[in-house]
Input
Amino acid sequence: MAVPRSPDRWVFILLVVGLVGIGVAVALLVPAKVLGAEEPPRPVAATVVETGACGQGMDTVEWDAGGQKKQAKLDGCGHSKGETVEIVTTGNDMVSSASSVPSGLPVGRRLTALLLCMAALAGGFYAFLFRYAPLRAPAVLPTPRQERVS
Output
């Protein structure tokens, strides 16, 4: 006769799943600034000073940085002289177009880490069930075949 499982086990499982779900929601919704991530670079309006032919060179742009005029190579080509372009400074001698920099929340790394933790939790729970699950006998034991003597 089978012994019914207590409902306490299912309450525990639902509690763990619920807490993991709340943890995932909080971790994805917490601003990156709170977790110590650096601010995304802000776009700046720059004017194209020199144009470079695509395949041979890069455009040179000029922008106002705190009262000083700065020039740098633009990581792109094909703009006309005098054109205004939104750029993002990277701190090097090169700047990038603002449209080429990803915008939005940097959720990818946090989501990857959370999914890895959930997979480890599920694997650990599966191993727990394998290790501590009661061994059960089959419901119907096979009877040995007896040979007939004719």
Helices lie at 7-29, 108-132. Residues 13 and 125 are 10 Å apart (CA to CA). Strands lie at 44-50, 60-65, 68-74, 84-89, 94-97.
